[in-house]
Amino acid sequence: MIAASALCKFFGSGDTQVKALRDVSLTIAENEFVAIMGSSGSGKSTLMNILGCLDTPSSGHYKLAGASVSELDDEQLSAMRNQHIGFIFQSFHLLPRLSAAENVALPLRYTDTPTDEALQRAERLLQQVGLGHRMHHKPAEMSGGQRQRVAIARALINNPKVIFADEPTGNLDSKTSVEIMQLLTELHRNGNTVVMVTHEDDIAAYAQRVIKMRDGQILEDSACSV
Ligand SMILES: Nc1ncnc2c1ncn2[C@@H]1O[C@H](COP(=O)(O)OP(=O)(O)O)[C@@H](O)[C@H]1O
Ligand SMILES: [Mg+2]
After folding, report:
1. Residue 11 pLDDT
2. What is the distance in A from the centroid of ligand 1 to the CA of 198?
3. For residue 49, which ligand has an atom nearest its CA?
4. Which residues constitute the signal peptide according to the record (predicted)?
5. Mean pLDDT value across the chain
6. In 40-105, where does DSSP find H-type helix?
């Protein structure tokens, strides 16, 4: 599913240049559940953004679902994201003026799906994540856990091949975090590939494989002992 070789990412230039990724190579198979760990600034988000086609590497090669991503232009990258990738972020990234259902349906605006069909699909997904009773509420009227469920439903609307989650429980209390992790575990069980960034051991324990990063490099890559 994912094949990255010798990825480097540099920000800035000269004396102030930051080497956020240094020669990172990894492969992730279909239906793996992977956690990427490491302290703040170790390059987790940078790696996730490249794997998720939100950003391109300074050098190195990246293939996703058979396509050479590192050779795509911006338009092709966004098509790749729309077709294959679902994102979940720490801060949910919902649009405040839209209802839950409208937020979930949003990615379909960039496809030729008719609006009523898009909303019906959104409502089905909201039911699946346990929010059937909150479809027409705005994000401000929901708890953090409910907002993250909306974001998960939105990530699923395109039937993505891979779900990327950057600190999905970073803004949630521990009880709500468990609920969100159970939901991600269920997605994995249903056949999704899940790649998640976290710096919490108990959250990483839900994954099957843990990749530890330090200073822009992979320090350790091991199966999870659970
Ligand atoms: N857009 C950017 N511009 C400049 N430096 C950046 C940018 N994004 C990340 N960095 C730097 O790259 C390094 C890795 O950052 P990041 O991938 O966000 O780490 P993590 O997610 O592990 O906390 C850090 O030193 C960070 O300051
Ligand atoms: Mg980060």
Report:
1. 97
2. 15
3. 1
4. none
5. 94
6. 44-51, 74-84, 100-105
CB neighbour class for 96 (10 Å; exposed up to 12, middle 13-18, buried from 19): exposed
pTM of the model: 0.93
Q: Where are the domains of the chain?
A: 32-56+81-223
Closest CA to 185 of 206, 155, 154: 206
Q: For residue 8, which ligand has an atom nearest its CA?
A: 1
Residue in 10, 17, 18 to alter for ligand 1 test, most ligand atoms within 8 A of Cβ = 18
HSE toward the beta carbon, residue 221, CA cutoff 13 A: 9
CATH topology of domain 32-56+81-223: Rossmann fold (3.40.50)
User: pLDDT digits over 71-100, tens only?
Assistant: 888 899 988 998 899 999 999 999 999 999
Q: How far apart are CA 157 and CA 219, in angstroms?
A: 34
Q: Which of the four pLDDT bands, split at 50, 70 and 90, describes residue 130?
A: very high
